[in-house]
Amino acid sequence: MGIKDKKFVRVGMIGYKFMGKVHSNAYSRVPFFFDTDVVPIMKGISGRNEEAVKREAEILGWETYESDWRKLIERDDIDLIDIVTPNNMHAEIAIAAAEAGKHIICEKPLALTTEQAHKMLEAVNKAGVVHMVCHNYRFAPAVQYAKKLIDSGRLGKIYHIRATYLQDWIMDPNYPLTWRLQKEVTGSGTLGDIGSHIIDLARFLVGEFNEVVGMMDTFIKQRPLGEVAGDMGTEAISSQMGDVTVDDASSFLARFENGAMGVFEATRFAGGNRAGNRFEINGEKGSIRWDLENMNNLQVYFTDDEPGLQGFRTINCTGEHHPYTSAYWPAGHIIGYEHTFINLMVELMNGIATGKSPSPNFEDGLRNQEVLEAIEKSVYLKSWVSINKID
Ligand code: SOE
Fold this sequence. Notes:
Layout: E1 7-14, H1 18-33, E2 38-46, H2 50-60, E3 64-66, H3 69-74, E4 80-83, H4 90-99, E5 103-106, H5 114-127, E6 131-133, H6 141-151, E7 158-166, H7 183-186, H8 190-205, E8 209-217, E9 222-224, E10 241-243, E11 249-256, E12 261-267, E13 276-283, E14 286-291, E15 297-302, E16 313-316, H9 337-354, H10 362-381, E17 385-386
Parallel strand pairs: 1-2, 1-4, 2-3, 4-5, 5-6, 7-12
Antiparallel strand pairs: 7-13, 8-11, 8-17, 9-10, 11-12, 13-14, 14-15, 15-16
The structure holds alpha-L-sorbopyranose.
Residues 18, 167, 193-194, 197, 232 line the site of alpha-L-sorbopyranose.
């Protein structure tokens, strides 16, 4: 498509740290690699600290900046609001953006509670805007290919999913009490932050959750107070201590509506694991395995393989037969973490072109939140809890 036939969507991003950087890169790369009908323009960002937001606008490539997010939402030259703030800001910003008629993309988890997530979904539906929640791992080509295999029946009936998201970045007891460790700002700890990703992958690949039972713990109960420069920085600036009010580790079992069984673990105390986002799915005709730290590969096993050759084999999902990858490099020339966000933004641009919210959208965010809430309830009750679906 020629440039003169393209439509432009002017983006206003609220927040600019780790996720802000990843999203900025994605917007700038979409037109470089993909011929979408709608093209993002990096119009403006906002952040409370004027000096810092000005500097980041320059570094990340945004045209303008604001020190009040409301101003960004009010502006006529903004069509899409991107929310990359701490979780306690998501609902207020998303509802205000929807009321102002802006399309919205929001970082995960969508909200602090199902009640908030439900209000956000109502607001976007009422406004008729396009919405999306940022579960980026769905957009790894190998994960998309796994979805194709499952949907085409290649694995047959699904029996099991076992999935982990293992990290170790807060194992040092001197790591400060950042926002991700405070319930009122983040909602929950490992559960919402990284458990929500594996819940999303399970919903994407296996189907809807039916019931769950969980276990959670907080190993380090107090940490030094103080802000740190980066989102996941390690510098404590105070010797005073504060309470950690979220989980350091969560595990849960699940039963899916289609009868599949799930075993899940999300922790920030799995020493040596930096981003151990992995799953294995076993079906009646085969199995698949994926590991973020080797994200271009999908391991597959089929029961109808020649008996002497049976076993897992590794497929490098970078060729013309694999989703998204032909837009990048020739087969075998691997892509990385940041490309999952570029692929996600391509879907958002296509969604804005057609007026249809791509998945995962706010409805997926709400479904995810229902699972998170059921797990927390089951930990409290020490029993299985059915997912309470809100319509
Ligand atoms: C921190 O645990 C974090 O940055 C999460 O917030 C992201 O969602 C995850 O993808 C990587 O780790």
